[in-house]
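Order emerges. For instance:

***
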Amino acid sequence: MIRYIVSDMDGTLFYQHGKTVFDLSEENQIGIQLANQNGIKLCVASGRMIDYGKRICKWYQIEDCCAGFNGAVIYDHGQITAQYQISFHEIKRLFQCLELYRNQIRNIQFQSLDSIRYFDDLTSDYAQKYIKDYEKVGIAPVAKQTITDIIKQSMDIPVGKISIIVNDQIEELLIALKQELCDLTVVQSGQQLIEIVNGRVDKGTFCEYLLRTRHLSKDEIAVIGDAPNDLGMCQYSHHIFAMNSGSDIMKQAAHYVVENVGECITKCIEINRREERK
């Protein structure tokens, strides 16, 4: 019997959202209601800051347990139970490596464990976008200090994730970073997005946490995602779902391909009913 579903957020639970990412599609809202009615707990694991997951838990009354920064932060019923940052030494190594690919990079963003965003150019379209996002949702303000300030002054910022948006040739940069930064977890999270977190974690870290703390088997947990950074969850579940709108690599790893999280939840309920009839 499937007792838990772990869902990615961007491109998955947030797919076809409304005015803000928290305005979930009607299909996903109905799915969450069905999960609650049928005793299935929904958790979220995201590359976003943990505050996004915490708000989703509260607004939609799902299991008050989530992961942020691709597993680098785990929150469980009011407490942060795990937290892994990127060391300043690793940040310096990263920027030395990026110098060779400067022409391919469109934007770099630091995200701190205390949910603050850092950019190098506060007038850039990316910085301005997140300044406006903060005005809408009240999560993750943009700092006045720049990334250059942080590096030059060796500022003690608890960086949880680094996001890099590239112009093109993402595969070349991805391979280079994985080779040079073997102590960090480097994943592709979108067509032009690379995310970097502490090397001890990925989204599978959160699934392992649920298996251990909830005493689950792999048959009792389902996972759903859309991007390569969701692959870490797959080894912890016998019920793997991928978004039809997602990456080919995620769909190849999946047992089921669905249009939205609501359809995933409906399928999980059907699986449980078949098990009950046996």
